[in-house]
């Protein structure tokens, strides 16, 4: 046990060291703190984006889901996010990088200038992301308890303290570099585990055949799950282009092209990791542990049964890395929603730079502490709750963002109506007040699009200056060829 | 001003009420939506290969080929010196 704990302690210390090093650079500058000076290169951004998306669910959850719900259902859920990245790189990355601000709220408040936009968007972000953070913390606590024999509450408190420290003092630079380390760690552990299993038990295809012969449900797609998997697919495909912790990566990229490339390279690596987990590790686990009570324990059980203490330490560090790489980005996005989106313009007119820096650090601590408090006794069905939170974000933000960037008739009335109709109808569907027999996200996106269309066609057109500014975001580099 | 494409054609191929999207990127978007929709067709959920429903294999293929296709289109459309 001491070897595993030493590996994890070394990893946590490295995260804090990165935060302290980054703090020397970022605390005095808004650009450095929120978007790392806008000079993150393609390779680093690729790993950081991959790590931001790959949460605890992408290691523990994906194998557990394949084990309990089957491989096709699992892939339907994760393919939504993967499709979302090409959508983001084509529809959002170039114009938003040229817009050159800090957050998705900045763009929406600029495109649809209204106090409603400035207030609703950050509130949606904080609500959805706090639930997401709690779910991640729970995964960290479970993993550390299972493999390190640390009490759930202690593991939770230690992990939370570490990422609050490095996010609050190191901003986007610390988040980026810790994400790089975390991304390499989790991809390395998943790939090496799969290769080690292959070395010992034969080719993945043979194991897949053996596992589906022994448990045919592993390879089947249940017709009754079509509605929910379509809903999950839609939620993630439409969330990625607008989800704040990914959009911040677009703003931190060196240029628009680098942002587009890194989004797609990140997805190639992410897809590889998910497919290896689903096709190589989950079938081996299904054969070795056919009757697990908690499917999410599958990866941990495989590692525990097959590998040395040193490797088990790396496995726990990889799970913590997956959790923390997402949670730090979520925390930074929450912090920016409060310190920049909600209070920023008011504070900048009244407060000193030192006070602004204190608000940035303080908001990260407040959100982190609230999430920790909630995670000590998390609600049941938390994963559904946070997926609903992400659905709320995409229902509210997808249509206004895409139409605001691409549709020339999009205007203030349409933008605000679309935002309210999308988020409102999604909430009504979730509470059961509306039941059209379709996934809530499909209903909400339809309502949001209709509201945008009605506002755009019936409302007054935007001013010439605003339309010219949006057109500027779409100018192509001289010499760019036709694709 | 919006730059024309290298072949001299106007950059927009869509309706005038939308900002121009390069033809290749528009085709990728169409292909991704069509592939995702096709994967959900009922007959593809019943066929199995190596014990896994064809739907699962199509989703796996989509996860690999959608970023690859997009990268290829970006590479073709890269700025020229």
Describe this structure in words.
The complex is a heterodimer of chains A (483) and B (81). With 483 residues, chain A is mostly helical. Helices cover 81% and strands 0% of the residues of chain A. Chain A has 20 helices and no strands. Chain A has helices at 2-26, 30-35, 42-53, 60-69, 71-99, 104-111, 115-148, 152-201, 204-214, 226-239, 244-252, 256-288, 298-306, 309-342, 344-350, 353-376, 382-406, 412-431, 440-458, 464-473. The longest helix of chain A is centred in the middle third of the chain and has 50 residues, at 152-201. The termini of chain A are far apart. In chain B, strand 1 and strand 2 form a beta hairpin. In chain B, helix 1 (23-39) packs antiparallel against helix 3 (54-76). Chain B contains three helices and two strands, in the order H-H-E-E-H. Chain B has a two-stranded antiparallel sheet. In chain B, 56% of the residues lie in helices and 5% in strands. Chain B has 81 residues and is mainly alpha-helical. The interface between A and B is large, with 61 and 51 residues.
- State the total count of DSSP E strands of chain B: 2
- Averaging pLDDT over every residue of chain A, what do you get? 86
**Spatial separation of the terminal alpha carbons of chain A:** 55 Å
**Largest interface between protein chains, with number of residues from each side:** A-B, 61 and 51 residues
Average residue-wise pLDDT of chain B: 78
Could you tell me how far the N terminus lies from the C terminus of chain B, measured between alpha carbons in angstroms?
A: 20 Å
Give the helices and strands of chain B as they follow along the chain. Answer: HHEEH
Number of strands of chain A: 0
Class of secondary structure makeup of chain A: mainly alpha
